[in-house]
UniProtKB/TrEMBL annotation:
<dbReference type="InterPro" id="IPR005595">
    <property type="entry name" value="TRAP_alpha"/>
</dbReference>
<comment type="similarity">
    <text>Belongs to the IRC22 family.</text>
</comment>
<feature type="transmembrane region" description="Helical">
    <location>
        <begin position="179"/>
        <end position="198"/>
    </location>
</feature>
<protein>
    <recommendedName>
        <fullName>Increased recombination centers protein 22</fullName>
    </recommendedName>
</protein>
<keyword id="KW-0812">Transmembrane</keyword>
<comment type="function">
    <text>Is probably involved in a pathway contributing to genomic integrity.</text>
</comment>
<keyword id="KW-0256">Endoplasmic reticulum</keyword>
<keyword id="KW-1133">Transmembrane helix</keyword>
<dbReference type="Pfam" id="PF03896">
    <property type="entry name" value="TRAP_alpha"/>
</dbReference>
<dbReference type="GO" id="GO:0005789">
    <property type="term" value="C:endoplasmic reticulum membrane"/>
</dbReference>
<feature type="signal peptide">
    <location>
        <begin position="1"/>
        <end position="22"/>
    </location>
</feature>
<keyword id="KW-0732">Signal</keyword>
<keyword id="KW-0472">Membrane</keyword>
């Protein structure tokens, strides 16, 4: 009975330990020295560099040397990480920068974010994603993503390839609901203004024109329009006789 109890307690302790490791708090990427995975080190200071291959593409974007990004959209970087180390490595965070393509100066930082950890055994690979919201002044940038990698007790920020990007404002579609609402408001406004102008000025104008067209002065007859003063007297008499008949 005691042996069974001890085995049960041992199993419970083991399960609790594994659970505690799984629920370990994520590394503070800004202050990695406070975590259990050791301090942050510059990759250039490593005695032996990381053996890896990192590639990525932008989801729903065409493969191109220059990517056009629009403010307000969220881009997704789809990574493939190959581990050529003799030991497993873990991806614990993502970050990066937008830099000036002419001089390499950092213009904006991509917010660091914890992921996983994504554990990659030796000789294996993993696929994972990073979401980046775009909210930048219109300009040309180099997108320079970075990955936080743990190998043993070493934590390092590893850079990946850069991507030339053009950031601009998203064009407004003719079928955009907001644009359609503006069009509708404009049509209604013009309609109300036209109706008001017609009822205020148009009705009176057309009524006045109609009355003027109805009241026309009588045109003189053909006979009265003839000036007989210059005609010979005999000719005038003949005309009068014709009228009498």
């Amino acid at each position: 009975m005691r042996i069974a109890t001890l085995l049960s307690l041992s199993a419970t302790f083991l399960a609790t330990s594994v659970f505690a490791q799984a629920e370990q708090a994520p590394i503070d990427l800004a202050n990695p020295g406070d975590s259990a995975d050791g301090k942050y080190i510059d990759p250039d200071e490593l005695d032996v560099g990381f053996l890896y291959d990192i590639s990525y593409n932008l989801v729903d974007k065409p493969d191109s040397d220059v990517q056009e990004l629009f403010n307000g959209e969220v881009i997704i970087l789809n990574y493939t990480f190959h581990n050529f180390e003799q030991e497993e490595v873990s991806i614990v965070g993502v970050g990066g920068q937008f830099v000036d393509p002419t001089n390499g100066q950092t213009l904006a930082n991509i917010t660091d974010a914890n992921i996983g950890p994504v554990i990659i055994p030796p000789g294996d690979f993993r696929v994972f994603q990073q979401r980046v919201g775009i909210n930048l002044p219109e300009n040309n940038y180099l997108l320079a993503p970075g990955l936080y990698i743990v190998r043993g007790s070493q934590l390092a920020l590893i850079g990946t390839r850069t991507q030339l990007t053009i950031v601009s404002e998203k064009p407004i579609s003719l079928f955009n609901p907001q644009f359609l609402l503006l069009e509708l408001l404009l049509v209604v406004t013009l309609g109300v203004a036209g109706y008001f102008a017609y009822t205020t000025y148009g009705v009176d104008y057309f009524q006045t024109t109609a009355k003027t067209a109805k009241v026309q002065p009588a045109s003189p007859s053909a006979d009265s329009a003839v000036d007989q003063s210059w005609l010979p007297e005999g000719h005038v008499k003949k005309l009068n006789k014709r009228k009498a008949k």
